[in-house]
């Protein structure tokens, strides 16, 4: 709750950026007023969704204190909602998290006005500025960063410097949290020696939650963070939230593209001229078409291949085409029809599997050539 849309927006955007380098993947709104069409829906409910121990209610507001570890990691709500109106706080007293922002006429007044308050009974909520939350954190409070910020206030440290200290703290905290996840996800990647140019790229191993939890015993965040508490419970809750889903989807896409890139590089190291000597004209045409599909995919998805890989594959394709009769060369040199499909990171059928039967289009192309030859 804020006195103006500008102050509300600044606060909400600051909150969702606290988990950087993780991306906030839920819905949030910079500000929300009594004139919005959904105002009644959000304010007339008699109670928020059930709030379990340690768990903030899903689909509702989650407001976190600036010195709490959960601000940097566990932003699970579906909406970050703020209001510039002065209606009674009792309207939202059933919400598990509320932040009340007062007038900040001077930048230095923030430290005096903002107070983190833990209330077991939100019905006693008053209109004073502060953070009100029924959330019970998984980890212990970090008193060192609080003392550091309080000392900065006493010494009249510039707000920009205070902000830099807090952002660096959140960055390091999130990195300590995400490193075990990065390490485990990297182990899902198949070995490079398992990649064959004549078979489909191998699939990533699935993410198994209990397997990951077991890895935390020896390689958990305790190696890089001084904070104590229920790290296992925090990870379990994080794995259920949209932020993990968004992060894992992005990492999975990156790793799948890496597999496709390694497969493309393996193709370029093969002697295609030697390969086609044992195959029919129809199979060679099918090979060319699949190689072209592979090139199109590399350009469309911007696969992270070594410099010169695409040019090398283009040279291979050209040499294979030149080994065919002239009229087939003319057909295969025609520019391909643009692919209307959106980019995808899903594993594709093997683009080079010579053991695969030729496609119908390939057969028609080769048959038309034979008909003309006759």
Describe the model.
With 374 residues, the chain is an all-alpha fold. The chain has three domains: 5-161, no CATH class; 165-243, no CATH class; 270-373, no CATH class. It contains 14 helices and three strands. The protein has helices spanning 5-17, 39-43, 69-73, 110-113, 143-154, 159-186, 209-219, 231-238, 242-268, 272-276, 281-301, 309-322, 326-332, 360-373, and strands at residues 97-100, 116-118, 130-133. A three-stranded mixed β-sheet has the order 1-3-2, with no helix packed on it. The longest helix has 28 residues, at 159-186. The protein is elongated. It starts with a helix and ends with a helix. Residues 48-88, 106-115, 120-125 and 345-358 have low confidence and may be disordered. InterPro entries: DENND6, Tripartite_DENN. Residues 329-374 are annotated as: Disordered. GO terms for molecular function: guanyl-nucleotide exchange factor activity.
C-alpha end-to-end distance: 82 Å
The average pLDDT value, as a whole number, equals 75
Structural class: mainly alpha
Strand content: under 5%
Instruction: Please give the domain count.
Output: 3
Enumerate the spans where pLDDT stays under 50 for 5 or more consecutive residues. 48-88, 106-115, 120-125, 345-358
Number of continuous helical runs: 14
Percent helix among the residues? 40-55%
Instruction: Give the strand line-up of the largest sheet.
Output: 1-3-2
Q: Sheet with the most strands? A: 3 strands, mixed
User: What is the multimeric organization of the chains shown?
Assistant: single chain
Our Rg estimate from Cα atoms comes to: 29 Å
What's the helix-strand series?
HHHEHEEHHHHHHHHHH
Shape: elongated
| Strand elements, count | 3
